[in-house]
Amino acid sequence: MSKVPAIPYETTLFVRDHCLCLHAQRAARALARRFDEALRPLELTNGQFSLLMALNRPEAAPMGAVARLLAMDRTTLTAALKPLERRSLVTSLANPSDARSRLLALTTEGEALLAKALPIWQHTHAEVDRLLPEPTSVPIREALRAMS
């Protein structure tokens, strides 16, 4: 015996087909899996690659700026940093101009690993770009940036 749903099944199908959040999450998970697999030989995840890349700058970066760039709260960023610090890829230093904040920097080992990871990212990214119908890749990137 089937029950009458409070929301018609057709509405469920409409939401499934039109929900930007659902489609963005599904795409993000699929992309994350692809990049995680590609970076696995270096024992990096796509999130760790992004964090290392965010720290690839001439000066140590304030934690708040890195968190904003990666759309993370500081607690999440702190947790993401721990395995990279254990591997001596990242260092956290006291900010001389503000004792309450930390500055983040790549170590020499972190720079070397990032240099090995970049060609893998470039190759994987080119594969993903080839999957996108032309000329949609630019508008997709622009739309994603606008929403983030």
TrEMBL record:
Pfam families: MarR. It comes from the Bacteria. Residues 17-148 form the HTH marR-type domain. SMART domains: HTH_MARR (SM00347). PANTHER family: TRANSCRIPTIONAL REGULATOR, MARR FAMILY (PTHR33164), TRANSCRIPTIONAL REPRESSOR PROTEIN-RELATED (PTHR33164:SF105). This is MarR family transcriptional regulator.
